[in-house]
Write a structure and sequence with these properties.
- The complex is a heterodimer of chains A (about 400) and B (about 350).
- By secondary structure, chain A is mainly β.
- Chain A has one domain.
- In chain B, about 20% of the residues lie in helices and about 20% in strands.
- Chain B is built from 7 helices and 14 strands.
- In chain B, the strands form 4 sheets. A 7-stranded antiparallel beta sheet of chain B has the order 8-7-6-5-2-1-13, sandwiched between helices.
- At the A-B interface, α2, β4, β7 and β11 of A face α3 of B.
- Chain A: This is Right-handed parallel beta-helix repeat-containing protein.
């Protein structure tokens, strides 16, 4: 009896702690197709109160303007991600807004709908802590094109981010892009035919695992860039992913940093410290399975740290790689080495430990101001003792509870 | 466009003047407590049956205004009787609870000069809230459009070009996208350096806004060469048209591009040789937001001159290129000393 009694008390208390108010929470269901279907959907996202669910009926909305959500603890739930039975937000005729859906409130749960053909980014969340992206599809349906939007799933300036079981295709920058955020998990997702499949940029504490990154220009990128409010990216674990056949020619608009990613890149680490790349399966990445480089552009940010430091590569499986290195001078180096370069490529800047039983090619450019034409490629042995393993990311229980 | 504004004002006065009804005074209970009144008339901020501001609403203007598809704007401040605003150390006007900032949008040659929409920014005890109203076809009242709306509008641009656009009335969230400061809604326009009152209202304004008479250098008027150099006017334009998002607490904080009047105009964070961050197609294949000496290689210009939603800046509130504004910014960049990279 005592136990049962405690449970009765504990349940409502837990609900309060989670910020849920089950008595008041309601479901607002919206249907596609009517003349004012778009306005109704946006109104529902405005009128929703914390705890509410906005439910998208199956079908297709043809949207002319971006949608936005600024109410905390709201669930936006559709009927699925496939064209036949799912809830489809089609932005092919978009006339305004920089993204399809913008979320600016905390504790939001997005699940079971698709966002197609936005002119800019797909779904962006900014300053939206504890956001959960679950079972979503963001796609540019014509496949890789420079005119596609930049980011598919785009959380930025947020603490606690979960991207779980999403599919992203066709982004002209990164399919899944997490920027200037802390405590991040990207898992069980598929990124295909984007310039960058998954990108973690200027962020701290991220786990990227059990994803499939295939047919992108670069599979998984861990970047740090100068002159941004949050920089000094560190503590990123990239593990147990399948990173294969990332040989799509780069279709990013020039000027963007990802436009410099060579086709055929598996995992690319630029700047950052304490990045672990382990337990991944690599195959058929024409330039390299793993590339570790400094930020080699001119910059004027005295606080910026351009070198990769304490990068660990261990326990990965390496299939074929390095047979079509798509960086300047790559073909010549491959020819000199008998047709291909080793699966791990390092520009020689910063420091890394590579304990995989595969070759490492260093370009021997330790100073990031040295031009690539000064490269003196040679095999390098980077095996050794790795720094202490990172503890891994733990998200608040309320986030994991969303998807159970 | 000043003539246009006068025409609208005249039309409004006529519409109001024909009415024999007594002018209602603003309803403070509705202003402070009603969540989202369906009709604009419920506030009592306008004389019945039209868009003429009620007595006691203080009309104001700005040295450099935000560009909104060449719309003429009529602005007003309502403060509860007896309450006063103050000017803080940064020159921002701090309004009392119960204040409403009112902004009506219209074109002299569209919709018979009647306004198309009116936006309210209301200061309540729990903060500012934004509500967009679209005027009814008969021009006698306006109706809440929290989900936003697209309205076909035709008008003549200053250079004579006739333009037909799908004008976007922002939804309630989009109001906040521009008015967000640290995640909460805040006014943008009423800053000491930019606000101005017509001669008929100056005394009244000085009595209601403490510190209004403080001497500060006025923001240049972007289109008046007598008010500042090309660079100064360009910076005024960027402050008003961009910096509400492009500041460290605004909607574009993650871009690292900060365009406030107070920012260092030579710095990389002002766009000078700043590489794109999350610009996507907005880079237009260019390396820098501002390439000194080279407007044609500056994607800040590219984005300003685009109407494609994946490229255009600002992201909200523009379906027309502001040719004259872009020309000023081109002139500013062209006048910069070219750097070694070019």
């Amino acid at each position: 009896m005592r136990v049962r009694h405690a449970a009765y008390i504990a349940l409502p208390v837990a609900a309060i702690l989670l910020g849920l108010s089950p008595a008041a929470a309601k479901t607002i269901r919206v249907e596609p197709g009517g003349v004012d279907a778009n306005e109704k959907l946006q109104e529902a996202l405005i009128l929703a109160e914390p705890g509410d669910v906005v439910e998208l009926a199956p079908g297709r909305w043809t949207l002319t303007d971006g949608l936005s959500l600024d109410v905390a603890n709201v669930t936006l739930r559709g009927a699925g991600i496939d064209d036949q039975n799912g809830s489809i937000l089609d932005f092919s005729g978009q006339q305004g807004a920089g993204e399809g859906l913008l979320v600016t409130s905390d504790d939001v749960f997005l699940t079971d709908f698709a966002v197609l053909n936005t002119k800019g980014d797909g779904i962006k969340s900014k300053g939206a802590d504890r956001i959960v992206y679950h079972q979503l599809r963001v796609e540019w349906t014509a496949g890789p094109k420079e005119t596609n939007g930049a980011y598919g799933i785009y959380p930025v300036e947020s603490t606690d981010v979960l991207v779980n079981r999403v599919v992203v295709r066709g982004a002209s920058d990164a399919g899944i892009y997490v920027g200037q955020s802390k405590n991040i998990v990207v898992r069980d997702s598929i990124a295909t035919e984007n310039v960058a499949g998954i990108e973690i940029e200027n962020s701290y504490d991220a786990d990227v695992h059990d994803n499939i990154a295939t047919k992108n220009t670069g599979g998984i990128l861990v970047f740090d860039l100068p002159s941004l409010p949050m920089q000094g990216g560190h503590n990123v674990r990239v593990f147990d992913n399948i990173v294969s056949d990332n040989n799509t020619p780069n279709f990013a608009p020039k000027g963007n940093i990802v436009a410099s990613v060579p086709a055929g890149t598996g995992v690319l680490v630029m700047a950052n410290r304490n990045v672990e790349i382990s337990g991944n399966i690599f195959d058929e990445n024409g330039t390299a399975n793993v590339m570790i480089v400094g930020y080699r552009y001119e910059h004027k940010d005295p606080k910026y740290q351009p070198l990769p430091k304490a990068i660990v590569v261990a326990d990965n499986l390496h299939g074929r790689a390095g047979y079509a290195p798509a960086f300047p001078g790559g073909a010549e180096i491959a020819a000199a080495l008998g047709g291909s370069i080793p699966p791990v490529l390092w520009d020689g800047a910063g420091d890394a430990v590579v304990n995989d039983a595969v070759g490492v090619l260093s370009l021997n450019l330790p100073d990031v101001s040295m031009p690539q034409s000064d490269a003196k490629p040679s095999p390098a042995d980077l095996s050794g003792d790795a720094p202490a393993a990172l503890p891994g990311v733990r998200l608040p229980e309320s986030m994991e509870a969303r998807i159970r | 466009m000043k003539l246009g504004a006068a025409a609208i004002a005249a039309a409004l006065v006529c519409a109001g003047g024909a009415m024999a009804l007594p002018p209602p005074s603003p309803n403070q209970t509705v202003i402070e407590e009603a969540a989202m009144p369906r009709k604009l008339s419920e506030f009592g901020l306008f004389r019945a049956g039209g868009a003429e501001l009620s007595d006691g609403v203080l009309p104001y203007d700005l040295h450099t205004p935000l560009f909104s598809d060449y719309a003429d704007k009529a602005r007003g401040i309502w403060m509860p009787p007896g309450a006063k605003a103050t000017v803080d150390a940064d020159g921002n006007v701090q309004f009392p609870v119960g204040t409403v900032l009112i902004k009506s949008f219209g074109w002299a040659d569209a919709n018979d000069g009647k306004p198309v929409e009116t936006r309210l920014l209301i200061h309540r005890s729990d903060g500012w809230t934004a509500l967009p109203y679209v005027w009814d076809a008969d021009g006698r009242d306006a109706t809440l459009a929290i989900g936003g709306r697209r309205i076909p509008v035709s008008f003549d641009e200053p250079d004579g070009t006739t333009r037909s656009i799908s004008y976007a009335v922002p939804n309630k969230n989009q109001c906040k996208e521009c008015h967000a400061l640290d995640g909460a809604i805040a006014p943008i326009g009423p800053k000491l350096r930019n606000i101005r009152f017509g001669a008929a209202y100056r005394t009244n304004a000085a009595g209601r806004i403490e510190g209004l008479s403080r001497q500060v250098a006025a923001l240049p008027a972007w289109d008046n060469p007598a008010s500042g150099s090309v660079a100064e006017r360009a910076r005024a334009y960027l402050d008003v048209n961009c910096a509400h998002c492009h500041n460290p607490k605004g909607s574009a904080s993650n871009s690292g591009l900060f365009l406030r009047w107070t920012d260092d105009p030579d710095g990389v964070n002002y766009g000078i040789e700043k590489r794109p961050t999350a610009a996507g197609r907005g880079s237009g294949g260019m390396d820098f937001a501002v390439a000194p000496g080279h407007p044609e290689a500056s994607f800040l210009i590219y984005r300003l001159e685009s109407l494609d939603p994946g490229i255009a800046m600002p992201e909200v509130g523009r379906a027309t290129v502001h040719k004259e504004g872009a020309a000023l910014l081109r002139q500013w960049i062209a006048g910069m000393e070219t750097r070694s990279a070019h």
